[in-house]
UniProtKB/TrEMBL annotation, chain A:
UniProt signal peptide: none
One of the protein's GO biological processes: spore germination
Name of the protein in question: Germination protein
NCBIfam families named in the record: 2A0309 (TIGR00912)
Keyword hit for Transmembrane helix: yes
InterPro entries to which the protein is assigned, alphabetical: Spore_GerAB
Subcellular location: Membrane
Keyword Transport belongs to the record: yes
Family: Belongs to the amino acid-polyamine-organocation (APC) superfamily. Spore germination protein (SGP) (TC 2.A.3.9) family.
Subcellular location, principal: membrane
TM region positions: 12-35, 41-61, 81-106, 118-138, 145-164, 184-204, 216-239, 269-290, 302-321, 333-356
Membrane topology: Multi-pass membrane protein
Source organism of this protein record: Brevibacillus parabrevis
UniProtKB/TrEMBL annotation, chain B:
TM region positions: 272-293, 314-333, 382-399, 405-422, 434-461
Entry similarity comment: Belongs to the GerABKA family.
Protein name as annotated: Spore germination protein
Stretches with biased composition (Basic residues): 1-13
Organism domain of life: Bacteria
Pfam families associated with the record: GerA
GO terms under biological process: spore germination
UniProtKB/TrEMBL annotation, chain C:
Main location: membrane
Lineage: Bacteria, Bacillati, Bacillota, Bacilli, Bacillales
Pfam families on file: Spore_GerAC (PF05504), Spore_GerAC_N (PF25198)
Annotated source species: Brevibacillus parabrevis
GO annotation terms (biological process): spore germination
UniProt xrefs under Gene3D superfamilies: Nutrient germinant receptor protein C, domain 1, Nutrient germinant receptor protein C, domain 3
Similarity section: Belongs to the GerABKC lipoprotein family.
Name of the protein: Uncharacterized protein
PROSITE patterns (UniProt xref): PROKAR_LIPOPROTEIN (PS51257)
Amino acid sequence: MLEKGKISAFQMAVLMYPTIVATALLTVPSITAAYADNDLWLSPIWASLIGFVTVLVVDALHRRYPQKTIIQYSEHILGKLLGKAFGAFLMLLYVLLTALVVRIYAEFLVGSFLTQTPIVVVISTMLLLCAFAVRGGVEVIARAATAFSPFFVLPLLLLIVLLFTDFQLDRIFPIMADGVGPSLKGALIPQGWFTEYMLLAFLLPFLTDREKGRKWGVLSVFAVMLTLLISNLIVLFLFGTDVATMLYPLMAAARYVSFADFFENLESLVMAIWIMGAFIKISVFYYATALGSAQLLNLSDYRPIVLPLGFLITLFSFWSIPSLMETSKFDVAVFPFLGPLVLTLLPLLLLLLSFVRPARQEGKSS
Amino acid sequence: MNRNGRKWWRTNKHKLEPARQNSPSPYAHLTLSKETKENLQTLQDIYSKCSDVIFRPFYIGKTIKAHVVFISGLCTVQDVDQYVLTPLMQANENEFPDMEQMAEQVLAVSRIKNLATIADCIEEIGSGNPVLLWEGEERALSLGLAKWEKRNIEEPSAEVGIRGPREGFTETLDVNTSQIRRRIKDPALKMERMKIGGYTQTEVIVAYMEGIVDQTLVEEAKARLNRIQIDGILESGYIEEMIEDNPASPFPQLKDTERPDTACSALLEGRVVILVDGTPFALIAPVTFFALFQAAEDYYQRYIISTAIRWLRYLFLGISLLLPSLYVAIITFHQEMVPTSLLISMAASREAVPFPGLVEALLMEITFEALREAGVRLPKQIGAAVSIVGALVIGQAAVDAGLVSAPMVIVVAITGIANFMVPRYSVGTAVRLLRFPIMFLAGTLGLLGVMLGLIAIVVHLCTLRSFGVPYLSGISPLKPKEWKDILYRSPWWAMKTRPHFTGEFNQYRQAPDQKPGPERSEDP
Amino acid sequence: MKRILLTLLMMSLLFLGGCWDRTEINDLAIITGAAIDAADDNQIELSVQVFIPRALSAGRGSTSSGGNLTLVKSAKGASIADAIALLQTKIPRKIFWGHCEVFIFGEDMAKRGIAEEMDFLVRHPQPRERAYMFVSKGKAAKTLELRPELERYSSEVIREMSDMHIGMLVTIIQLKEMLRGKSNAAALPLIDVMPPPNEAKGLETAPYIMGTAVFRKGKMVGEINEKATRGVMWIRGEVERYTVTAKLKNVQGTVSLNPIHSDIKFIPSIRNGQWQMTIKAKTEGDVVQNGTNLDMSNPEMIKLVEKAFQQDIEDRIELALKQVQHEMKADIFDFATDFYREYPQEWKAAKNNWDEIFPNVKVITDIHAYVRRPGLVTLPGGIPEEEVREK
């Protein structure tokens, strides 16, 4: 085994929560609102469905091939050559996705706070930090996520308390004025985020309590759905359908706070959440990429390739995306389709194939 | 690179002589002979030029030649005269067939040990026990009369408390063990003795509660101690650095204490206490980050107040680590984050300051650290003068001269005070040190830098372990059961279990359902 | 060792790169208020009120009234961004918008249209979402130059006044929402300069909120006075601290009440093509002054007061409706959204000619006013007991 660390199913859920929420919290409400208007709070509910499906598929695969990651069992299912090709494709996609996450992270910071700092500095400092965590192994990432998780949830609750007087609760009406259509359309974007639960395929093999993996996976999806729902409601109550025009509505909400003339401009709070969340998200993606690549290349340790991979990710984060507009275009036009296709449908296909050709792997693996 | 695959700059090291090791002793091959003269000669050779070693020849009764060898100052001359020389010289040597019987009947010394080798003799002499050499005997006799000047038991100076026992450990190992034994009388309290240090032969005791402690932990501790091969141990700090899990960390992975009550509570929680001769500081392992924020007094005063104080400590830990960096980040990067009226006051006070925010902060912090360090090292009388001068220099005068702004002085002062809130000096120093890199990060990347620094510290804390126990255990990995002593100090009647990481075998520390209340007294 | 060297190397890299976004406070021109006026050739004139830190540090906290804490600089340009670029050449410090909490549009500018300039305020990361927006009577820049006696600078005066909800309070976000909203109308508080006590102290006066400027499609179409503003605020549910003084029927003197709590509900309905809006208001208040000879402990007397209270509010609302709905035809009450919420289908059909529908919406008011507490005394404080009317 490349990874000696073990995490509990609960830790896995805690780890996945910021991994999904971190970036979704900031950009998704406005994209959702563009389609769903004031039904944007319904969209996460529809979107979470694909999250549940992904978790169940990945878990089913895991039950068939315990202690193996997707890179390893895809070889069993598809055969050596095709499996390697699939693994390579997946790893390339993961490098790209990680690069994208890094870019979005940096784009927000540079756009809103550090307008003159070169983006390469923001990207490389973060990746360096993540490499430090990734080299520590899954245990360290999970523990860091646990340590950060209260600081992730509390600010959100604080926002609700501080902004409550500014809420206009009737903005939620009319509910479903045009039927479920708009909210379903709005769900198209957040569902891409939920497909990222495919990362579980890299975490499930390291659980101490394997039988609880499914339960906590599903609970984690539920928590993410609830959080998105709440954050969507916050911005809806505060800004109405105007949300659609804002790039980062939740940050605008934080900037709007003015309590007792002193608790003003809490965007630093959002920034703190953002950096922490992005750190965990990038670390998890980075870790999956490093581990998967090492398995793909049959290395005995994944640590030596962490830094080179980081360099690759840095490069990709520049090459693949020229501007923020391009990133959001990817978020809107590409990822909602790419995500479910690759991250949910392909594992589902693997699962089906493993049923079709059970004899072959059974013979091999035993 | 040479043939052996060693790098060239390392080969040198291997030519050096290895350090003197614990055992075997260089004198191990020497046995005592029947000829006292020979034995004496050997000892005198070994102790040549040691003016403090006294060889006293005398006759037992009238005929048997004997020598008593001791180090002056490590035992009282009067004792030797009274209990050894007098009875032996006045005894009738013919009444006793051998040394053993004679010792039993004549020597009024309770601790007597037969020694077979020269090495044993040296060890006993070194420990302060007079050694009796006897004509015609292949053995020597060690007389437990060691006694030397020692410091009295005093109030521990590094861990002061309002409520709680006032005695602290001293430099003498026996005094320290006696203090622990006096508190825990059960024979389950085990104290295993070992000697570490080639020259110093320092006695080290591994104490633990049998039945509570995880036996593998004891084995691990002993194994790590046995691995130490060093010329001398002068303080438990030597041992701490030789047995910790991650040497490249500013955070202490063992807790040091000067208080016997703290040591005993650690024993009862299933931890191992390592006592070292020659220092009042005992080591406790394993330890978690949060355990370092527990002061002995927390457990003696009312739990509600202790809980509040514990939170105050966490808060000020954050302040001590982050306040200067946050200040720098805000005044140089994120001016929009402070309320307008505050910003205006800050802008006004900074108007005349010639330094950038980061430089101003560094200047003040370094000055403060220097003053503090100087205050610790200086004799008490001068120390007061330093603090007065310091207060004037980094306070009033600097502000009046327009070198620093008044808010900065406040920030530095609060940070300094905050650091004293941490009950363990060793954690306090770690935080003091980490403050500076974060300040640099704040000065270059603003709040982003502060966050990156903070994340790096947390990740580092997540990788740390103390004797295999995760450093942040309780919070991460999450163990709600441990919160009773982390997030709040639960009252004693609710502190039902020992900390989970070690006390697996004997989990419950008290009978259930002991919550006191008025109605209880009316029960029959 | 290698590790330490590596870390040091990286640290030094950070420093070599320089501190990109670092700006010392000493190098900032903190803007406390901004005014946007119309200039010739379709240009705008931007004036900013800059805080002078030295003025405050010299006095060590206590500012002498004579010293000026702020200075005003102006520049002309095609847009705000353009004007700022020009302005920056006149100020030796970096212009910092993060603490600008007051933006004032000049009357001419408001009439020309504010949509273009709003874009800057919401797009640039520095201006705060919660900054307050105003329209000034005449030129806006003159407001900034005032030297108020009580507050440190004039923009603080109007901000504090808005915080008391004396007039309307509109933040950038709210204005943006109004301009982009379904009703296509907006309202901003209108400020004017109080006449100075004497000629010598020309600038030592303060601005005050005198009414409301009404916008339609981003352009100012009219203004309403303070009394009608109160009605508008009643409808919008924004009245917080304002004493209502009512004249009772057949009784000499007036009674003043402080509304403590008010609750406004809009009930839209469409019947036979007739758009109708019912405004239901419930308000409670305490008596603060009783200038009549009524006994305030008598529930029947209180009934009379309540009725007068009710009447007064109704009058104000009607006044506001008359001016805003019928004369200016601007839906600043955002009836549009209420209709949309209740009748999404009908709204969709009527969306494009809302401008014609709005003036014809029938408004029914249904006000319930209650007096909950008589204050500290029951009988009128200043008249002999015999004269008190008990019935």
